[in-house]
Predict the 3D structure of the following.
Amino acid sequence: MQFIDLEAQQQQRLPDGRTIREAVDARIAAVLNHGGYILGPEVDELEHTLAAYVGVDHCIAVASGTDALLIALMALGVRAGDEVITTPFSFIATSETIALLGATPVYVDIDPASYNLDPAKLEQAISPCTKAIIPVSLYGQPADFPAINAIADRHGLPVVEDGAQSFGSTQQGHRSCSLSTIGTTSFFPSKPLGGYGDGGACFTNDPALADKMRRISRHGQERRYFHRDLGVNGRIDTLQAAILLAKWPNFQQEVEARGRIAAAYNHKLNAAGITTTPQLAEGNTSVFAQYTVQVENRSEVQAALKDQGIPTAVHYPTMLCQQPALTCQHSRCRNGCHTQLALAASKRVMSLPMHPWLSDADQDRVVFALAGALQLTSIPSPA
């Protein structure tokens, strides 16, 4: 059983009858034929396609989800001495990009139902040094942006959505990456919309921010050999843009399949007495980049499932405020002292196989094995 089955994805048929693999091969061949390997026409096509889907005026395709965060913060003027508020329960890129600019990550604990940043604890973390807020839309559903944006607006602060796991999800009918000042996402291969290498994007309705992020992603260049800003080499490769375009016609179908599979997991796990899963907030949809449960004795449970050929993963076992690379940063939440819910989750979360082609039979295998590992007996053995 595959945790995420990218091979199965390549065999899926597109509306024109080709497999995704055939469409990818054709798109790559087109790039090889025209030779525009850097900022070729596929990059512009991808940006227009994604901006229209998200429902914003501007998309800047970049080299990775990490670059997307870094470029967004640079465009907002984050620098040494600033503070940026975020969650301690995420991949290191969320805080790494803050620290790389000399700013300080300040951590706010998570909501126990969604595992996203808890808006009720946000305002007390704001100080005169606060420059921005980065909520993470963890596991595939948006953070509570109506509440977060209301607080940010009162304090005149921009909000950057780390939507690396949530591209394709919605909140009150609006898509992830359109919910804040800047939205960012990742096209890492395992993401809901994944390339075959690194890639990412920034989204905004602010034309000045869009222009600045585009310049920063291209060495701060306004025109050839004229650099208005300090920037980075953060542009997406034309080949990755082409691959994403080849996969694009099936993306929404895959999003819907993820929702159906997650609903089936919910039903099967609840029937087995396993209810410790992230809850979908009212008004949200999720792309279920991960399907995650909480368990006691996690390492033993993982070993038991591995013995039955079932892969698992942990996102994330160590909080950002506990990471050696970041603990040297001054923080009002050092070593988890104010992030106890995140700390508890980090010790218990475990993600199950999740992708749009996961069969009902394989789900039954997963749930039966998990129930057995947890010594629950209310679910029948799969046929």
Q: What stands out?
A: The chain has a mean pLDDT of 94. Residues 76 and 209 are 8 Å apart (CA to CA). The two ends are 16 Å apart (CA to CA). DSSP finds twelve helices and 13 strands in the chain.
